[in-house]
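Predict both folds.
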Amino acid sequence: MTKKLFITAVSAFMASAAWADVVNITTPRTSMVLNAEKGARVTYLYYGTRVSDADANTLATTEKGEEAYPLYGMNCPAEPAFAATHGDGNMSTEAVVTDIAKSAAGNRTTYTITLKDKAYPLFITLNYMTTDGLDVIETWTEIRHSEKKNVTLTKFASAQLPVRRGNVWISHLYGSWANEGRVSQEPLTPDMKVIKNRDGARNSHTDHAEVMLSLDGQPQENSGRTIAAALCYSGNYCLRVETHDDEYHHFFAGIDENNSAYSLKSGETFATPHLALTFSPEGLSGASRNIHRWGRLTHLANGNKERKILLNSWEGVYFDINQKGMDQMMADIASMGGELFVMDDGWFGVKYPRLTDNSSLGDWQVDTRKLPDGIEGLIRDAKKNGVKFGIWIEPEMTNSTSELYEKHPDWVLKPANRDAVLGRGGTQLVLDMANPKVQDFCFGVVDELMTKYPEIDYIKWDANMPIMNHGSQYLPADRQSHLYIEYHRGFEKVCQRIRAKYPELTIQACASGGGRANWGVLPYFDEFWVSDNTDALQRIYMQWGTSYFFPAIAMASHISAAPNHQTFRVVPLKYRIDVAMSGRLGMEIQPKNMTDEEKTLCRNAISEYKQIRPIVQFGNIYRLQSPYDNKGVASLMYVTDKKDDAVFYWWKTETFCNQHLPRIKMAGLDPNKTYTIHELNRIDNTPLAFEGKQFSGAYLMNDGLEIPYEHNVDYHKRTAWASRVLRVTAK
């Protein structure tokens, strides 16, 4: 009996010693399991629904695992996460686990696994962080060394995630100016899939630094195991999936290393951007809900505050800014129930007045020929009209025709011994954000405005040019490859200073439209401009894709004029309203050109949006019918955490005679609750058949409602553009 107990005790001790090497990174519903045996390479074992520590430890004995962070030089045929050239010219790295640690700070827990090169004092630390109550794991890498000479980093991914081969599909976003956030879906095949951006200043006009991986075949919105990955970085990035001759797709994410080799000094730490990962068994929408919640609570500036309904002046007047016109627009948005007016481009420039896009950036002094009472007068008029006031700036840019450029030509990005390539308007240039003097200037643009005019409630921060000239006049010759990285380090420093002093100020990230829709920017910005294209039909497609990774509260969505300024499409106001109400509602229009009937429709819509604003901005998204399926209709809904209130959107996307549209089933409701249906923004002469009627959540999710294909309106008001917004409220 004594002998048996001894053996059991020894066995338990041995098991405990082995288990100490197994790292089970848990969230409420997910786990990532790593094997970090000291003296060996760290291996990935599992990522999916939450597993117990006992199961995690068993995995270490049954699964071979895949290298979690593959290093270049000792297994050259495989794609590495990391590569470097040591001070003596050696291009190989062979690092093994030396330490495992777990720490907690506030509501966050961080797991660290430290690797050391076998031959050099080079250290690689893999970090994994969780936040209480959220199903997102943030991972990043830190590199340091104590070699005598600099170590040149040539690959430095934030992370690598192996995904078991099978019928795996990738969903990602692509596009261009005025066509951002389009969805592409394709199966992963044995090759290299690369998604990257090299804009330099903005990074989400074309491809996006986020993907979803559907593990059970073609992506489904509300079913199927799904992994979502979002790189939290504002600069150049590279996402790649390598599928070669093993059992895994290998997903890498990090800074794009192209022309960005980094010379790391002894004692310096290089930290990669965070990669946010989530797993959901509830399809694309399930992964979106996880990312949205994490974003609102941890990464979006003021993510817990309702956003105001605003009128922006741009499409109404463009550069034709004047005191009387701004006052008129303020009065108009106030009369319709709006809460904020934003004056866009065209208000500044003394020596060089801003009449078009070819001058004056950097000269942030009021043009008193346009605004004789200055910003003081605008704030006075805003108070008179009962709205808040906001203003447009573009701090990172200048024009060759400007006082700033005349004083500081050394502040712009340009290669030595060459003339700069000029951007927008044939004169625009990008300021060198690596330069501390430029950082001070950019911070000062905001600080001076807010110091002089503390009543400013909102800033629209634009960035209308990529980095077209590789050359820093500030960085030394041997660090020119640091340009892209140092630009965004400088940009982040400015943003941090602004937020430290003005935490409550609302700031929009506009970058020629949707160029800065990324989680690297949003800790310092309250929202982003989805696209310069405000056409309602095209916005359905763009906002659908954007909603994969970003919540409605961050997506500025505006009612625009007809014909639309970009597509010249004529879409009725009701439809434009219904699309805009699925994001952060605003207006991009000249109200004085609207009829009284149109103003009344907008007034009613704004009033009803205020009632549903908490649901849309803080609710859980369920995408129901994708416009990309070409079924003639798109539909989604937002549901509260308690499942007691929801908003359902339905938009017809095409019209053909005798067309048959699918009946849309709702999602996210409580099957045991009874819900009352109420149509918002109604224009029909008679109510819908189900107006005011009650249905069980089970019925609405199993069968849905029959939505009429057309609106019941007078003949002269009939159009092909049917849309519906329904409030779905539990008794």
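Second protein follows, with its predicted structure tokens after the sequence.
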Amino acid sequence: MRSSIFLLFFIFSQTTWSQEAPSMVKDSLPAIDQQLEIEKDSISPAIEKINKKVIDSLTIQDKRKKSKPKDSTAKQYIPYIKPMDLVTVEDYKILHFDGSETTVDTTLSLQGEYTFNFLRKDYFEYLPLPNMGEGFNKMGYDFHQDPLTPQMGARVKHFGYFEKEDVNYYEVPSPYTELFFKSTFRQGQNLDATLAINTSPRLNVAVSFKGFRSMGKYVSSLSRSRQFRMSTQYQSYDKRYRLRLHQTTQSLENEVNGGLTNDAVYFFENAPNYVVADNNGQPVLDENGEEQFQFYDGFSNRSTLSTQLAARNELEGKRYFVEQQYQMFPVSKDTTAYKMTLGHRISVEDKKYSYLQNSVKVYFFDAFEANALDSINNSTLENNLYVSYRDNNLGNLKLDLFHYKWKYALGSNDYSKDTILPNQINLSQMAAQVKWSKTLFGINAQAEAYQSLKDEFATTSFKAAAGRELYKEIIATAQYQYRSQPLNFNFHLFQSDFKEYNWYNSSLVNQNTTTKGLSLFHRKWGSVTASWSKIDNYGFFNNTTPLKDLNKKFKVTALQLDKQIDYFKARFDQRLDFGKFSWVNNVQYQKVTQEENAEEILSGPIALNIPEWLIRSTIMLTSSIFNKALFFQSGATFVFFTDYYADQYNPLLAEFVTQNNTKIGEYPRVDFFFNAKIQSSRIYLKLENVSAPIEHLIKVDTPYDYYAAPFTPYRDFSIRFGLIWNFFQ
């Protein structure tokens, strides 16, 4: 019986979707001629003949025979299926969580170059740790981009984690495959593959897998991941009903070393030339009174440098997501545009974070057990009922109702402690959200409000924005945002086998952020954005290790600042084209002022540390060779940020921790890249941090001073290779 059903489904699918594949599909295909563009809502007799062959299971004629006679004025919607000889790359659509859609991009551009990194997007404000997949140190903040609800913690592990908003859906006229490959740091590869297919014009299935392994150059720095995603979208023939579902299974694992020891820091910074010292450790001077150097290249092999730990942390997750929506009240006769949409989403997700350390050392101070094993289990159930309405007079209006259930559970607390802490947080929450947008007198206005309905772990958020075109293509936008939200669960409760990492903070209040922003955009001269944020009750993890034990031990305290923080950020983005050459600049200025004693480190922790200047400049050449059979893009990227008290990475919490003792920065980073495109495949070659060996060639005693975090070096010079290959079958 099952075989028969499957055979019938396969025959029908092939019948409805069998079309001649194009010989080549690439982004250089011409756009669809306007004469060939046919309105989907108005069907000509010729098109009607085509559509009789492409119907879900039954032809239109068959359906009419089985149905009762209808009024001649009744709506007869016939979907239009584009013949394959008219298909372009623009017909291969990527559908996103928020309802927007993009097309498959096979172009050669600077934004495309960013897709070759680990996150596959631009991370201008992020500073990556030494090995791929270890995480990123933030050099800038947008507090309104964080989730509205409290999270489990271990946020560094979530940089590469696929949330429900990150899963894509597809609509493709023929089977589509994307293969992404990139080399890693020693003994590994990075692969991201996606296969999407429409079994019929109404049903799409996509399967994706991302996995990588990278040994890394330092002791105990192995990184690897396994991330599976499957998504499905179904639409009724008139596009009134839509069903989306996806399932994800993810595992992100890292060996962690806690950074270099003090001796290793010296060897890292001075390899391969070291100061000659006497028996008392004092430098030996030559006849000119200058320090003498000796050459030893052994520590240029980073695996010989000693580290603090040999441990492992891992984030695992599994999620099931279903969304249904139904559209009502068509805008006009014979159309797929509707005024009202009613929908429901449900998401069930389980996450587990674990930290394992055998042969416990004193780095995290004393432990209850000889072998430390900490774990966090976080379960989330989210129900979302929404209705949206659009009208020429009212604008676009959307109402969301949310119901959440969380269970944040820690490991066993059976061993003896001075104080027994609770080991879980169980709570539920309800919330409502309203979104509105409309164009009034040439002004694009938007407003959004979110309010929790229960007092416990409640969130209040409001956002308003207005923009319009000013003189000669200058677009100005003003924005106001306010958010009051609870801190993540690990601020409230954490439990560990290490004695100093156990706390229960029942008196924490909401963190409040108010932001005012202004942006100006010009198509030729670029954009300028500026924002000013006032933050009250800022929550952060602070390094409370005694000064005598710095970089020997690591103690962390979850704190909430009782002082106001002012955060100003201004950014300039510009691209200038000179024939085949392009110059792209990103310049960001930031200033943090903390109320009371902001400059006196000893008076209390400075909670928010960021570099004052962050600069990135790219010069590139874009051209073609071999009769335009190969397009290439080659150039160099310069990155620089001023020195600052960067956050220190804590692998036990998987969080970055504020410290005010060690600065990093003030070093240039130069990357050379070469990207090439042949049809729908793109090849990537990059020389990362080439400035480090160049500095040593110019001056041999130049120290290696590039760090991603205190006592955690940035990446050495390396050559990376990558490939993206799109198949349109």
